[in-house]
Specification:
Helix 1 runs antiparallel to helix 8, helix 2 runs parallel beside helix 8 and helix 5 runs parallel beside helix 6. The protein is about 35% helix and about 10% strand. Helix 4 links the parallel strand 3 and strand 4. The strands form 3 sheets. It has a 7-stranded mixed sheet, with helices on both faces. Strands 9-10-13-12 form a 4-stranded antiparallel sheet, with helices on one face. It has 12 helices and 13 strands. The two termini are about 30 Å apart. The chain is of the alpha/beta class and about 400 residues long. The chain binds pyridoxal-5'-phosphate. The site of pyridoxal-5'-phosphate has 14 residues, from helix 3.
Length: about 400
């Protein structure tokens, strides 16, 4: 739903990959959930009513990805879903862990011992390297079960999709368990994207999927881990045995109802409209001197990772913030300072790693506001050029010619 209205008042929000604005349907579902007094685990009438609503949300989440409802474990978000997969399928089962070099910290920080699977200059997983790494771990050659492989469906900084069908096929051949961090891809699915295609042709039938409500237009602090089958999983939080013993703690009914509603709404959205707006903006940014990371490969329809060669990301963010635009650097640490992007570093774009900003259009982006941002960006680039900061780039294969 791209709105073609006049430029909106107040800051313009273009940081959807950090969190999407709440969808009205999600808000309505949450309000209905908040009205429920019962604990879904209680056996009395109030509990049973809450339980029915929770199970409806579970059914919605699971069936959207071709799973049985009992395969859906509700969590507090994407971070917990990823950590649960690493714990339950990885450490608890004694598997070696292999992760993509551009994974989110939700995976990286939870598996510091993991081996990194390299990516190419566009940020795409190197399947030949993965195959070699898997061959070294094939069951039968050691005393461990096959490794756990964690790959993100779409990267949060560049939007680049992983070649999931090839990755899944390699994992099957080598007896590896595949966990897919689908946090950025799941609420922005288009028929032809790699994540959708991999789901459709059954490639991901044996994989677990991590989901996060607030990246779909649902509430912050809710998520799910979808298991390939209804099976036990060593919990991080044993608690009272909720979620069939796989995640203890009283269910966040309203949040999970909001997540299911957001997911359903995201399925109805025509993402091609947002993509056209993104492409238009990207063209303006390139004209202004930006280099686009991952421009040559399939990406999320809403995401731009743009480098202004020579200009620190922090300076760009400050300039755009003063003009009233909320965008982000590739990576922000909890102190609020801009860190060098490990994603761009893994892509071999070392110099660019501190000069990239991410513009990610929200589901309700207003065309007028996005176009106005393009103008402001171009003026900013001109100012930096006037001060002798903006340089011609020496990027390795990831940029787009100006
Ligand atoms: N995985 C990816 C790819 C993400 O982008 C994020 C959040 O930015 C997460 C995991 C963590 O999700 P959550 O914020 O729900 O914990």
């Amino acid at each position: 739903m791209v709105q073609d209205t006049a430029v909106q008042q107040g800051p313009v929000y273009l940081d959807a990959n950090a969190t999407e604005p709440l969808r009205p349907a999600a808000r309505a579902a949450m309000l209905a959930g908040l009205e429920q007094t019962g604990n879904p685990s209680s056996v009395h009438a109030a509990g049973r009513r809450a339980r029915i609503m929770l199970e409806e949300a579970r059914q919605t989440m699971a069936s959207a990805f071709g799973r049985e409802a009992d395969c859906c474990v509700f969590t507090s978000g994407g971070t917990e879903a990823d950590t649960l997969a690493l714990h339950g399928f990885g450490r608890a089962e004694g598997r070696a862990i292999l992760i993509g070099a551009t994974e989110h910290d939700a995976i990286r920080k939870a598996a510091p011992e993991a081996s990194l699977i390299p990516v190419d200059g566009q940020g795409v997983i190197d399947c030949m390297a993965l195959e070699e790494m898997l061959a070294a771990h094939t069951p039968g050659t050691g005393d461990r079960p096959g490794p756990l492989v964690c790959i993100m469906a779409a990267n949060n900084e560049t939007g680049v999709y992983a070649p999931l069908r090839d990755v899944a096929s390699l994992c099957r051949q080598h007896g590896a368990f595949l966990h897919v961090d689908a946090v950025q891809a799941a609420g922005r699915m288009q028929e032809r994207d790699e994540f959708s295609l991999a789901l459709k042709d059954g490639s991901l039938a044996g994989a677990s999927l991590a989901l996060s409500a607030h990246k779909m237009g649902g509430p912050k602090g809710a998520g799910a881990l979808l298991l390939p089958e209804d099976r036990p999983l060593a919990p991080l939080l044993p608690g009272g045995g909720q979620e069939r013993g796989r995640r203890g703690g009283t269910s966040a009914l309203a949040s999970h109802m909001g997540m299911a509603a957001a997911l359903e709404e995201s399925r109805k959205q025509d993402w091609t409209l947002l993509e056209a707006l993104r492409d238009e903006l990207e063209g303006v940014m390139v004209q202004a001197g930006a280099l686009i990371m991952g421009h040559g490969v399939a990406r999320l329809s809403n995401t731009i990772s743009a480098v202004l060669p020579g200009v620190a990301a922090q300076m760009q963010l400050m300039a755009l913030d003063i003009e009233g635009y909320c965008v982000s650097a590739g990576s922000a640490c909890s102190s609020g300072k801009v860190a060098r992007s490990h994603v761009l570093e893994a892509m071999g774009q070392g110099e660019a790693a501190g000069q990239a900003i991410r513009v990610s259009l929200p589901w309700n982006a207003e065309a007028g506001a996005v176009r106005a941002f393009g103008q402001v960006y171009a003026l900013m680039a001109q100012r930096f050029a006037g001060r002798g900061l903006l340089k011609r780039s020496s990027l390795q294969g990831g940029g787009r010619a100006t």
